[in-house]
Specification:
about 325 residues, alpha/beta, Rossmann fold, 2 domains, seven-stranded parallel beta sheet, five-stranded parallel beta sheet, about 15% strand
Length: about 325
């Protein structure tokens, strides 16, 4: 029996969904406390580990003496896996592109619409007996005819663009690693622009890039100042791409209209985070990929890959760790 360690603390209902996909001959080892000491204890007999949002750090990797494979259940490994620790021991790392795209794209559209209408504020106020039937009109925007800017045009950016095209939006994007051909751009109704043009022209700016040293702080005070004061910023990618202090300043001063955020520089978000005080921000707790369908698709793909690796050594979506 090969043991697979799940690095994130989750509910029993979530663990049950994951266990339903575990192949014969494998056992899922889970946590009952969000504790690094328990992680080190539970990973010790395991030959594989699954990483989600909770980072897999070097001490836990070191405790996994039998570890041969680390499999991310998404694709954002840059800030969740200590790749140097894996490379030093020759432990393989693989990703799971399946499952994430549609859920994140739908969540992105939801945040754009919610931020455009100050949905979270209106809901909270209604529950307190305050009826804003007219007072939100000066701050509410239709999506029709707006220019949506995409920072990053990979799988999720393309899926988001496809859905927003139905709202009769105009799409522009900036992606240094752009691989789209003319037919794909026409189909999605988008065109490439420079980073400066992206900031200046977007009515909505939605972020779809990984969290790397190159993208960290990319949306800083200067970038926010270059955007329209009526623009909306949406981030379902990685929190460190946006300077949250600069974002608060822009939102609270009226230099930016609204924001929809699923990711943050520090997670979980503290109750005293200044962004929590703003009526023009919609926030969710890093759940854009957190649908039941997404988890099923991820686990089906992930465990098939794990089984393949231990049966034949073959591994799809493997990350080159330079070894």
């Amino acid at each position: 029996m090969r043991r697979i360690f799940y690095n994130s603390m989750a509910s029993e209902a979530t663990y049950d969904l994951i266990r339903a996909w575990v192949p014969d001959g494998f056992e899922l080892v889970t946590l009952d406390a969000d504790d690094e000491a328990q992680r080190c204890e539970r990973i010790a007999p395991c030959e594989a580990a699954i990483v989600a949002a909770t980072p897999l750090r070097a001490p836990v990797i070191a405790a996994g003496e039998r570890l041969r494979l680390v499999h991310h259940q998404g694709v954002g490994y840059h800030d969740t896996v200590d790749v140097e620790a894996l490379a030093a021991r020759g432990i393989a790392l693989a990703l799971t592109p399946a499952g994430t795209t549609l859920s994140v794209a739908e969540h992105t559209v939801m945040l754009i619409l919610a931020a455009s209408r100050r949905l979270a504020f209106a809901d909270a106020e209604l529950r307190q007996g305050r009826w804003h039937i007219n007072s939100l009109r000066p701050f509410s925007y239709e999506l029709n005819g707006k220019t949506v800017g995409y920072l990053g045009m990979g799988r999720i950016g393309q899926a988001t663009a496809a859905r927003l095209k139905a709202f009769d939006t105009h799409g522009i994007y900036y992606d240094p690693a752009d691989t789209l051909d003319a037919d794909a751009r026409t189909r999605l109704g988008i065109r490439p622009v420079s980073f400066r043009e992206l900031l200046a022209q977007s009515d909505v700016l939605t972020i779809h890039v990984p969290g790397t040293s190159q993208t960290s702080g990319l949306i800083d005070a200067a970038a926010l100042a270059a955007m329209k004061p009526t623009a909306i910023l949406v981030n379902t990618a990685r929190g460190q791409v946006v300077d949250n202090t600069a974002l608060f300043d822009a939102l609270s001063s009226g230099r930016l209209a609204a924001a929809g955020l699923d990711v943050f520089e520090q997670e979980p978000v503290a109750a005293d985070n200044p962004l929590c005080t703003l009526p023009n921000v919609v926030m969710t707790p890093h759940i854009s990929a957190g649908t039941r369908e997404a988890l099923d698709n991820k686990m089906a793909s992930l465990f098939a890959n794990v089984k393949r690796f231990f049966e034949s050594g073959a591994l799809e979506n493997r990350v080159d760790l330079g070894g």
